[in-house]
Amino acid sequence: MSLPNTIGSSFAFTCFGESHGRCIGVVIDGCPAGLEISDQDIQSKLNLRKPGQSIVTTQRAEEDKVEILSGVFNGKTSGAPICLIIWNTDVRSSDYEKFVNIPRPGHADYPASVKYAGLNDYRGGGRFSGRITAGFVMAGAIAEKLLNSLLSLKIFAYTLELGGLRADLSKFSFDEIIRNRYSNEVRCPDSSLAQRMKDMIVEERGEGDSVGGIVECTVLGLPVGLGEPVFSSIESEISKAIFSIPAAKGIEFGSGFAGAKLRGSENNDAYIQSDKGRIVTKTNNSGGILGGLSTGMPLVFRTAFKPASSIAKSQESIDLSSGKESRLVVPGRHDPTVVPRAVPVIEAMTSCVLADLAIRGGYIPRVLKKN
Amino acid sequence: MSLPNTIGSSFAFTCFGESHGRCIGVVIDGCPAGLEISDQDIQSKLNLRKPGQSIVTTQRAEEDKVEILSGVFNGKTSGAPICLIIWNTDVRSSDYEKFVNIPRPGHADYPASVKYAGLNDYRGGGRFSGRITAGFVMAGAIAEKLLNSLLSLKIFAYTLELGGLRADLSKFSFDEIIRNRYSNEVRCPDSSLAQRMKDMIVEERGEGDSVGGIVECTVLGLPVGLGEPVFSSIESEISKAIFSIPAAKGIEFGSGFAGAKLRGSENNDAYIQSDKGRIVTKTNNSGGILGGLSTGMPLVFRTAFKPASSIAKSQESIDLSSGKESRLVVPGRHDPTVVPRAVPVIEAMTSCVLADLAIRGGYIPRVLKKN
Amino acid sequence: MSLPNTIGSSFAFTCFGESHGRCIGVVIDGCPAGLEISDQDIQSKLNLRKPGQSIVTTQRAEEDKVEILSGVFNGKTSGAPICLIIWNTDVRSSDYEKFVNIPRPGHADYPASVKYAGLNDYRGGGRFSGRITAGFVMAGAIAEKLLNSLLSLKIFAYTLELGGLRADLSKFSFDEIIRNRYSNEVRCPDSSLAQRMKDMIVEERGEGDSVGGIVECTVLGLPVGLGEPVFSSIESEISKAIFSIPAAKGIEFGSGFAGAKLRGSENNDAYIQSDKGRIVTKTNNSGGILGGLSTGMPLVFRTAFKPASSIAKSQESIDLSSGKESRLVVPGRHDPTVVPRAVPVIEAMTSCVLADLAIRGGYIPRVLKKN
Amino acid sequence: MSLPNTIGSSFAFTCFGESHGRCIGVVIDGCPAGLEISDQDIQSKLNLRKPGQSIVTTQRAEEDKVEILSGVFNGKTSGAPICLIIWNTDVRSSDYEKFVNIPRPGHADYPASVKYAGLNDYRGGGRFSGRITAGFVMAGAIAEKLLNSLLSLKIFAYTLELGGLRADLSKFSFDEIIRNRYSNEVRCPDSSLAQRMKDMIVEERGEGDSVGGIVECTVLGLPVGLGEPVFSSIESEISKAIFSIPAAKGIEFGSGFAGAKLRGSENNDAYIQSDKGRIVTKTNNSGGILGGLSTGMPLVFRTAFKPASSIAKSQESIDLSSGKESRLVVPGRHDPTVVPRAVPVIEAMTSCVLADLAIRGGYIPRVLKKN
Question: ∠C307-C233-C365 over CA atoms, to 5°?
Fold first, then answer.
């Protein structure tokens, strides 16, 4: 319960590695034996998060090639803990040396330096770098494959809002959203809006600035009753996982903050029978969750990301060594927004949480039968 | 890690009891020995959450008188687990019997019935009732006293928005907010707006409807560096705790969802020196948290509550025994809004999370010296 | 993972209460919904541990009447946490007041006083009293019923050795051992040896002394493969649970310490087919466990209990207030040996561990079907 | 709480890797920042466990060279999780292929095959191999350095009994035992007995057989009051850790099983003042633990190891593919006894447990001051 680098209880992972250390890795414990896993299953997910892919992301060039160090035997999970790593290769730590005493606004530099008495690896943000989310994606690849294979879940996130530009996705079907979300660099299913978002990012980057946005995530196919009340409600477990992603500052399920303005008669989702005789709700203001349990309707939540903290503009700070006020321009290679690369990370963390709850709730067995 | 009714790892509590069962209780484990605790310390907090206090709350009349069953010796915590209970007395379960097969929209009835195969105690919502938060408040009373005594923290929540009426609190000092927040029935520090909020609730109740709202919580006095990255960030732990409160559907820290629309140069908080030579930030868009760690600035977060699900209006549902569509008017005695009574619950859960992180981080010793 | 008063992860319990406090209680989390539970199921187990039953136990007269405070609905577990308590009634704390500064040899008084800076409830040993094992027995009653109902396990412990008198049980069948173990006051299945053991205890008590002994526990019916390597092996989990019982100082599985003197060719258990075509072993030196997993053979382990620490003889100690050497005769009412009353406690803790491992391993579902 | 490959709660490690997989590794979480760590600190401990060192161990030739993958920055722990691995190089898996269906007596083959439906990596025993204890030793090296640096503990294990030959160590001082324990191949501080033990092993190996033995471990310098009752007593935590070591089948603390034959007046340890004015006990039958807490006297416990299961003699087994009885001679390269190589493993696991309890109890801070 108190291991700060482990998340989950029945399907869990422990992460390690620093932005400019030797590698980024995870150890997954609790994955049922018998799941087919190839390097490609994981690599395809890592590639969605990989840096240096487009003009809207950092130019750090990492191959992020996964190595499976344990837990997979004859192409299947063996029931043993699964260690996955990627090696860091394109590291330029000298960028950071001269600013070690001048904390970057919006970054963890200052509180981390106080907490660890200056002993933490500050290069590239160390453990506080978004790079650690590569580990989340590796773990998520296993979780998602498990959920797909066993429960036929569909877990998909996408950019809903970027730099204030918000998509209206009501005109798209789930299938279209699933299909389109990775078809452009900003990961917005509305491709015409996506172009405007991209133009805006390029412009802000040109001005040395950055933007934030909102990622929505939808999950289809959840069985009714998933979730472990009272403290392992779906909202509790997902929010805990999502706030481990650097720059996430808000989360809402279903009607969320807007729902707080509605009346009960407007916000309550009436029960009706679907065409297929299933019990469904007319609306889905609950985001597919009541009492912390899945209702069988689509799980829907949105995450607010602040604008990337690393900007090229000069900012006020303080030199911790002298106590004097100082200015800095953040060094290094950075993303003008974290939102597009956060999309696969949110899918990954959502997958890990749902895999954990699915195992805890008995929806997935401990051993998948050998063929 | 997987006990669904336990929260926390170093200062933790396990809760038990049902809305219409014999009692509501908690067992707190990990509270340092030597903290002075009286019945009154806990009762004064319980009284803030107690039902039946005003026109804006349910008329269920529970005394909610705390009993300390263990862990306190000679007026101080002894290092042993602390069991606290209140007995249920004013129970009218018959209200629920006839609707056992017709799930109430917005409530956990339907997914809970599926999850537990109909074996769960459905009376008054059972474990899914807001009544279990009385246990949260009891645990929080101990946590808050610990934090006040050892770290001089000030933890205060208040109604920011109700039924769409939003307060502008920029005109009030922290001291005024602290002082005023419990001075009216809706727990809004702006007393003139509070009167309008109350009128609005009375009107909605008259129409058989309910409203939602937003509670803001502020914490003053946190040391720099509290939080245990990466998965026990302050945001992760607080959000997990807050989403255990029935009806919470969104949370945001600092600038939150609004911050997602800002540029990095606007949202980053510049470091400056305060008059007293401390390192502070000009703005507080981070809500006092960077990298999951406290910055020393006020911790600020907001929780969105949906409108209370129990309304007197007729609603569509399905009779699970026949599979036929049906209508129901929710029986029982209910709150027209959960927001005012959620205020002390949010203070309690915030206190429990911060006490846990404070002990984990070594900010509070295991034994307070004996006088 | 770090809650010192909670044990188990999927079937877990948290215990609270002190020897001379208001009550002894447990909260069980993770028990599947749908298990029939009556007061009598628990009371019958508590009665086996109850004090004051015979000349070989303490004369403290506690009724130890269980109350079910939560988690049972319509006679079945509901999936909610189960709180069980017994009230303390026959407390004579004055026995302890004058010796508060003179630690009793063999008791936790001295290290507990240092650890908690004198703040712990020392009356009757407080949390360190054997009385807290009444809580273990209550939790074990639920676990055992679960295991019996779902897996038809037979869990039975019995006195193997007392004050140096050791039983040869090879002449008894499992059925005879099961039947006879509670038929005499010392809980030894060999009734003629039991009489000698009892005489010996009476004699030692007359001399103001106490004796130790060994309890053996056997479990029949375990499925093959129970256990969660590497750190939740059956041996790991059972030993952790057993050493929570005051006065336990050694444990061995199968051939144990004697096996350390054997050759591999003697100690290895050869695989053969049973008459019924099952895979069994010729011998059972492994105690039914290989690699931390159950083999399907009887699980067998033995626990060594030291002689009861409270004796009427004068002993050397130190007055902590003056630092001077001092003598004391231990006050209060005590057992001349803990062994007979430890028998049901060992059954209880074994049941809790096996229920936990059975749920973790997927051998028991989360919800038992409603009739 | 339920992660089977993680042990500890405040100083914890997760282990991964299989005997014939790519590597053996651990991730340590919770180690305070600021501890100086070099490759050599870990390598020197690994070398004590390394195979192929003498005639009394397996001839598998592994270099076991540690690599620090994360968590150490500028020669000190950084507060981040520490990943340590060794690569497997001398793997001969073909030894195992033809016996995959014939479980080796005394090994986990049969129950593991049932538990994982044949999906587990069986090569060299996979996760059940003693080779995973190399990970324990790496974690232990960090823990021991922490305990030495902060609390000046001395943790030392040694062979007390081997193949029935038992040392009388009463003639040696603690200093002599510490100095001599690694001076011979069997790790017995009595060098003349050590020679006899070695001769005996060579003889048994010659006959294709193996032997068991007992390892004793002593810890000097523990503060009074370490341990977290009731379920994280020192005995509970140490026994859980020790039974994770393959072949361990018994453990006893202090007088242990022999103490069960004593009277209370014999077994109780009388309190006296030491020459230096400290409170000590005349005897140490408690093994330095009362009520699960350290007394300040030497912590003493003994672990019984069964004879190594892999023997060259022909044994009875069953061919799982045909269900027919069969014979096998265990293939591979093996230790004629696990005892000498278990000595550093026991030191390692004891160190990990004590580091965990020391942090939990507040005896070690979260950050060691930067020089």
Answer: 110
Nearest to D214 by CA among D228, D236, D197: D197
- How many residues are recorded in chain D? 371
Would an 8 Å CB–CB cutoff place B243 in contact with chain A? yes
Alpha carbons C78 and C25: distance in angstroms, whole number: 19
Separation of alpha carbons C1 and D198, rounded Å: 42
Kindly state whether B35 is in contact with chain C, defined as any CB-CB distance less than 8 angstroms.
no
Q: From CA D114, how far away is CA C271, in angstroms rounded?
A: 15
Q: Which residues of A touch C228 (CB under 8 A)?
A: none
CB contact under 8 A, D361 and B365: no
Q: Residue D34: its chain A contacts at CB < 8 A?
A: 117, 119
Say how far apart CA B26 and CA A46 lie, in whole Å: 43
Would residue A371 count as lying in a domain?
no
Residue B134 contacts residue B48 (beta carbons within 8 Å)? no
Looking at A286-300, A332-346, B246-260, D244-258, which range is the least confident one?
Answer: A332-346
User: Is residue C121 in some structural domain?
Assistant: yes
Q: Considering its fold, how many domains does chain D have in total? A: 1
CB A285 within 8 A of CB A267: yes
Domain span at B271: 6-360
Partners of C222 on chain D (C-beta within 8 Å) are none
Residue C9 to residue B15, Cβ atoms within 8 A: no
Identify which of D18, D29, D71 has the shortest CB distance to residue A80. D18
**Partner residue facing A6 (CB), from D4, D6, D17:** D6
- pLDDT per residue rounded down to tens, chain C (371 residues): 479 999 999 999 999 999 999 999 999 999 999 999 999 999 999 999 987 677 777 767 778 999 999 999 999 999 999 999 999 987 777 767 777 899 999 999 999 999 999 999 999 899 999 999 999 999 999 999 999 999 999 999 999 999 999 999 999 999 999 999 999 999 999 999 999 999 999 999 999 999 999 999 999 999 999 999 999 999 999 999 999 999 999 999 999 999 999 999 999 999 999 988 899 999 999 999 999 999 999 999 999 999 999 999 999 999 999 889 999 988 777 789 999 999 999 999 999 999 999 999 999 999 997 54
Picking from B236, B256, B291, the nearest residue to A250 by CB comes out as B256
- The CATH number assigned to the domain holding C348 equals 3.60.150.10
Q: Model pTM?
A: 0.97
Identify all chain C residues contacting A366, using CB atoms and an 8 Å cutoff.
361-362
Q: Does A77 touch chain D (CB under 8 A)?
A: yes
Of A34, A118, A120, the CB nearest to D117: A34
- What ipTM, to 2 d.p.? 0.97
Other Cβ atoms closer than 10 A to D192: 10
Chains linked to B by 3 or more Cβ pairs within 8 Å: A, C, D
Chain A contact present for D1, CB below 8 A: yes
Rounded CA-CA distance B139/B160 in Å is: 25
D369 inside domain: no
Residue B366 lies in a domain: no
